[in-house]
Design a protein that fits this description.
- It comes from Lysinibacillus boronitolerans JCM 21713 = 10a = NBRC 103108.
- The protein has 2 domains: about 5-115 and about 250-264, Diaminopimelate Epimerase, Chain A, domain 1; about 125-245, Roll (Diaminopimelate Epimerase, Chain A, domain 1).
- Helix content is about 20%, strand content about 40%.
- It has 5 helices and 18 strands.
- It has helices at about 35-40, 75-85, 130-135, 155-160, 210-220, and strands at about 5-10, 20-25, 45-55, 60-65, 70, 95-100, 100-110, 110-120, 125, 140-145, 150, 175-180, 190-195, 200-205, 225-230, 235-245, 245-250, 255-264.
- The longest helix has 13 residues, at about 75-85.
- The radius of gyration is 18 Å and the shape is globular.
- About 45% of the residues are buried.
Amino acid sequence: MTRVSYCLINTFTNELYKGNPAAVCLLDEKFSEETMQKIAQEIPVPTTAFIEKRQVDFSLKWFTPHMEIPICGHGTLASAFVLWQQGIVPKEHTITFHTAGGPLHAKWQHERVEIAIKTYPIAEMECPSALEDWLGCKPVFVGRTELDYIVEVGNEDQIAHFEPDFIAMKQFPVRGICLTSKSKEEGIDIVSRFFSPAQGIDEDHVNGSSHGALGPYWCEKLSKQQLVSKQLSKRGGVMYVTPHHDKVLIAGAAVQVLNGELNI
């Protein structure tokens, strides 16, 4: 019997029981994808990240309880936080993660973890009638990235009070649907909610990867170089978003909640 230790990290928050939780497993040996999937099913959080040490850097995979996923912003942030907090990597050093989608880099900046993700261009599209019916209102803007629908609605209250039909979402050929609007809260630029039952996550508490699209979209619209973005899920979370030409920097706080151990 092999024991696997893990840490539970809440990301995009410095408060316990807020933000988006991720489990982080530091592997001393290579595990099969089947084993990693079983571990993710046992740990009751949206995403479990698996880190394996390489010669000078790390490999990284993410699993929901339902499936392996190609990108996970909060799982990457949590993984970097664990490596720094445990002293495995000095905080002044950049961490490189090798993933199925290419390398990801993380830095410790101003007591936050900053990760660089790819930019996801948005192609504007006509709103499908089924999507408008699902929303229950006429959107301001609808676009599609290679992963998601990005939907701007008229105001923050529409997002906060929205009750999605997750069964109806099965008809949409995307990873998820991100609803967004300008914020009415001082110090916050934009708000959003992200729904992704296709990945086994009805609503993501705080979604980082969607900001690879939201960052450039809203910075251009608001004539800003950096955004403060708030997720309006029940747990909530805040991230700092800085778009560049070919990447988007996403920064957020993190806090460790517990250590655990599994027998496999």
